[in-house]
Structures are given as C-alpha cells and as structure tokens.
Specification:
2 copies of one chain form a homodimer. Chain A has 340 residues and is α/β, with parallel strands linked by helices. Helices cover 45% and strands 16% of the residues of chain A. In chain A, α12 links the parallel β9 and β10. Chains A and B meet through α4, α5, β2, α6 and α11 of A and α4, α5, β2, α6 and α11 of B. Chain A binds a DNA duplex (30 and 30 nucleotides) through α2 and α4.
Chain lengths: 340, 340
DNA sequence: AAGATCTGCTTAAACGTTTAAACAAACAAA
DNA sequence: TTTGTTTGTTTAAACGTTTAAGCAGATCTT
C-alpha cells in the first residue's frame, strides 16, 4: 500500500497551512483568494488527493454509512431490498454495510455491535425474533433506525411494512372465492408479528366465510430446519392424497420448499391443490401452473426505509413513523380450478 | 445520539491515564498490575464502553473492512457469494461493504473511489467490462484485491474462478452426446473473458464433433436490455418452430429470460429443445423438465476469495495467485430426449 | 552502598481531518 | 490620522485511539 496523499502533503507542497487546503477542498472558501483556491485544487488533482473518510468521520462524528441487518443477504427478498437501499442511500452520499443475522439473537447482537463500533449513522433492520431488547438499547442510545418487513407490538419505532393481516386475508379470501374450503397454511414457527398477523388474517378469512380453521391445517416450519420440517408438514397433509384443497405459504422461501414437495408428490396444481404464496420468485413463473402471489413492492420498502432513516438523522429526534406500503394479489394459474 | 463512552472517560473515572486503559483493554498489559487491570476492565463493562473503530482505524491504518464489488447484489449468484464472503470475513474479524457496479465503468470507478476513501483494507471484485485500468490503478496503489468470476487476459491478479472453457465444452459435449446437432447458445454481448471462453468452449465442442458452428446459433443479449434482446434472439431461433435442437445459456440470468420465452412459445423440453445453463436457480427445479446446469461452487469461490485477499493483506506483497474451483455438470430432465 | 534492573504507570505524539479563533495586512470610514 | 472593517491566511485544538519513550520507586546485585 503506497503512501497516501493527505491534506498535509498538499499544504507542504504549496507552503500553506492545512486549514486553507481543507477550506478550499470543502468549498467552505468564504475568504480564500481565487488564485490560491485554484492552486490548491490543481495540486490536489496533480497529487491525486483522496480524502480519508475515516479521519473525516472521526472529526465529524458522522460516517455517512448505513448498517443493513437482514436475516440472510442471500435470500432474494433481502438482496433485492439491499440493492434498492444501496441505490437510494448512494443518492444521498451514503454507503451501506450489511450483515446477516441468520434469525439468531446472538448473531444479531454481534452484528449490531460490529456496526455500531464502526459508527454507522443509522441502521435498517429486518429484526430477528426476540431482539426487542436490542432495539430498545438502540433507542436508549438514540441511534436512528428503521425496521423493515418485521416489527414488534411493544416497540414504537420507524417501520416500513405492509398490512400483513389484510394481505393474508385477501389471499385466503381469493382461495375461498375460487372454490376452496379446506385451506392449509405454511408459516415459520415463530411468534414474529408479521407472521402472526398473516396467520390471523388467514384464520379470520376462513371464519368470516363459515369455515372453521383446523389446527392440523397450519403447518409450522422452523427457519433452521426448513427443509426437513416443511417436507414433513407437507407430507402429512398431501400424502398419499391431499386432504386439503389449497395451500397458502407465508413467505416465498416456504413456498419454494413446499412446492418442491408438491412436485415430488406429483400433485396437480390447481386441480388437486390451489397454491398461493407471499412475495415473488422467478421460480413461481417456471412452475407449470404459475403461482399466484401477494406482491409487496420491495422498491417502496427499500426507498421508504432509507428516506425515513435519513430523515431521522437529519432532524435529530422525531416521533417514530410507520409507513404501510401497498400489497396486491397477482392472480395466476395456481389458483384457477378447472371445474369453476 | 447519546454521548458515547470513550477510553478517556474510563481513565478519568479511575484517575489513571488513557494509555493504561488502552493497554489493558487490548491485553497488551505486559506491565500492568493485576488489580489495576481488573479495575479497568470492570469500569469498562460498568460504563458500557465500546471501542470506536473509526478512531482505531485512523491510528492503525487498518479498517478490518473488505469492499465487495459485484454487478448487482440483487442477482442471486452474487448475493449468495456475498453471504459466503460475509461469513468467511467475519471469522477473521472483518466486515463487508458492498456495492453494485451495474456493469458500468463509471459506476465501478465511483464505487472503488467510495470504498477506497473509506479505507477498506482490500477489495473483492467481480469486475465489469473495460475496467482493466481501474484494476491497474489498484495494483499501482498496492491495494490488495481478488477477482471473482471474471478476469482479464492482461491483468495478473489474484483470481478465483472456474475453467470456463472446459465447463462450457463439457456442457455442449453433453448436448451432443444426448443426440443434439444444431446447438444454439445465448451469451451476454460482451468481450469479457469468462463469457468469451464459454463461447470458445461451445464452439470447440461443436467442431471437435464434426459440427460447424453457425453464427446465427449464437444469440447475444446486452446486460442493460436483457429482456428485449433475449426475447428477440430466442424468437428468431424458436418461432414458429425451433430451428435448433438445443440451447446452451451462458449464465442463469440469461437462462431465466430464455426459458420464459420457451414457456411462452410453448416449446417442449427436452423433446423439441434440450436446455442447459450455467449456474443454479430455484427456478430451474420448478420447470417441468428440471434444467441441466453447470454447477460452480459459490462456497468455494467466496471462501477462497476471502482467504486469498486476507493472505495478501497479511504477507504484504505476494505474487498473484489464481485459484480454479471445480465445476460440474448436473444432469437432469431438460437434456433427456425421449427418443434416445 | 552504589548501580542495575524491574515494575507500574504517565507523557506525549501520531493518525488525517475540520473549524473556531487569532492575526497581520490592506482597505475604508470618520 | 485614528479607528474600524474586511480579506486572506495561520494556529491550535479536537475527534478517540495506539504506542514508543520516559520516569519514579521498589527490588535486586555485587
């Protein structure tokens, strides 16, 4: 690593003070002569000066960096958001450091520590379960942050999300309207509110249509043993022949696993089983009966999250804002029963 | 943002010097009394001291941060690598800042500047086309970096990749062995070497088997107009009926677009058309004829990249190393012609 | 008893910026 | 002419660390 050019080098090179150089290079040159300014700028390019943002940050207390905490950056849902966040942040001169919590309290804590030690100006977080305390700690330290996708009942914080209850309700309603009665749902085995509300929406839609939700219809799978538990759960309801008319998946990762089973068991969609999922996936288009899904605008989520949190930074303290983004049902073959 | 606790605060609190506190907290305590050390450590936890890594970095000249530059973090290929890189880096106490170059020379340059200004210790780069100069600049500045996935003929640098020629060759060979003669290929419209070598491998395999590659069989699509150009290119060869027996896609993003067309045109795979792609995708499993693909281990790529670049940091200057990771053909339905 | 060594701690400089305050010279106002 | 203001620049401190060097006091050597 070659010796880097600092403001000091420019100053020495021109025989002036570092202060002057700094003023010019930051355009805070209220009272610098035009000639001097020109000379300094020229020397800067000549010597190929690059500001050391670390030094700047130490002095200013701002890093112009956002920390992004998601469950798993390799999950397309989150990586897509990451890209939006990146672009939106860049517009305001911010850089993004990311980390995957792996839905673990400990990793989440470690991540936050690492990001905060690096003095990120704010955090964008898709929080893992049982991390309320960590969020409260952020609030106590007055670190601006915004939650995305997930949220907690007893945490008042900036949050960008959809109305999960309503989205799930309409999805299930659609299943009912297309002639399904025995409707199963697969959800993560978690108490997280976004999932809980999807389940509530599912149950409410059933009840409101005179269907009594059966406990056995609700398949739970844990994040860390998704494949096994999803497989097992699906088999119970689908093998040898489906005992339900339809399946509603609470996330796309669950749907991917679930549909793998549907393929393996050679169940005909939608005739033997209607299918609906949350979120998008290329895979949904490639299935012979393209999957109907609840679309949430990741663009809206990412953009609003950045806006919100940059706002919080700018005007110091603000009452937490909650942004609800739209979610819509994209209806396709997987919910079109032939006999209708 | 509440006042943060610094080493100075601990020192004042105990009436000792900051040096002593620093020595203890860094376990460089060769000559500190046990009682004092204990007192300091206790005060540190009591006051909830968190080291300011920015300050540490300024002093040490190391940020323990890696910059990751990919074409698009929302592309599963890259986001998967990002996750591996993240995990592998964390093992050595490193954090990752990422950015998407969007296959643009300018964005790539801007990204590098941004990352270097933030004093990242090294870069992991999937370089965009025509960025050779940028890489040479890095070499001149002696910034450690490692290329992944892509590489240049005239740049001697650390690099982790597969043997693209050979991988493509075997893929096409497989198509030939399963009875295909007129074999088309879709590739990005780029001179990038990894793509060029895949094309060479494709042509060589044809020639070696007595098939003369037709120029019209090679469909080119640009990154920025992928959808239109891929659509158009596919239609020329497939509509109204396929004039080729098989299609070989140079990347999974190309395959996704291509297969969309195959679905739209209702072409039967593999009977009317065999299909093979590079890289994995959930979508490949969901197609009625699961897609045969060339698998490269993203784990190997990510892990080796981090190892290589951390090695470069540690032992200052090293001759560039090139790591070839394995690639294997995963054979499935999309290349199993019925009449064989 | 005098020097040498060890022990436990402090001093102070450095990393590369920013920025309030000071200052000298030039100019304007009275 | 004196006083005041403006202009262009410098000084110096600060941000939170690390770390070489220094320095007393205690302990060991001979």
């Amino acid at each position: 690593m070659e010796k880097k050019v600092s403001i000091k080098d420019i100053a020495r090179h021109l025989g002036v003070s570092t202060a002057l150089v700094s003023y010019v290079l930051n355009n805070k040159a209220g009272r610098v002569s035009v000639e001097m300014a020109e000379k300094i700028r020229q020397a800067a390019t000549e010597l190929n000066y690059r500001p050391n943002l670390i030094a700047r940050s130490l002095q200013s207390g701002k890093t112009n960096t956002l920390g992004l905490i998601v469950a798993d950056i390799s999950n397309p849902f989150f990586s897509h958001i990451a890209r939006i966040v990146e672009d939106e942040a860049k517009k305001s001169g911010y850089t993004v450091i990311f980390g995957s919590s792996d839905e673990s309290v400990e990793k989440s804590q470690a991540l936050m520590d690492a990001l905060l030690n690096r003095q990120v100006d704010a955090l964008i977080i898709a929080p893992a379960e049982f991390t309320e305390e960590q969020l409260r700690a952020l609030q106590k330290k007055k670190i601006p942050f915004v939650l995305i996708d997930r949220y907690f009942k007893d945490i008042q914080a900036n949050c960008v999300r959809i109305d999960n209850y309503r989205a799930a309700y309409s999805a299930v309603e659609h299943l009912i309207n297309t002639g399904n009665k025995r409707i199963a749902m697969m959800a993560y085995d978690t108490g997280m509110r976004h999932i809980a509300e999807r389940i509530e929406g599912y149950k409410a839609a059933l009840k409101d249509n005179g269907i009594t939700p059966q406990e056995s219809w609700l398949v739970r799978a844990s994040y860390h043993h998704l494949e096994e538990e999803a497989t097992l759960g699906m088999q119970k309801l689908l093998s040898p022949k489906p005992v339900v008319d339809a399946f509603f998946f609470a996330t796309n990762s669950l749907a991917i696993q679930g549909i793998r089973q549907i393929i393996r068991l050679n169940i005909k969609v939608p005739d033997e089983l209607s299918v609906i999922s949350f979120d998008e996936a290329d895979a949904f288009d490639f299935f012979y009966a393209p999957i109907t899904y609840v679309r949430q605008s990741l663009e809206d989520i990412g953009r609003n999250a950045v806006q919100l949190v940059l706002g919080s930074i700018a005007r110091q303290e603000t009452a937490p804002r909650e942004v609800l983004v739209d979610a819509g049902l994209i209806i396709r073959e997987s919910t079109k029963k032939q006999h209708l």
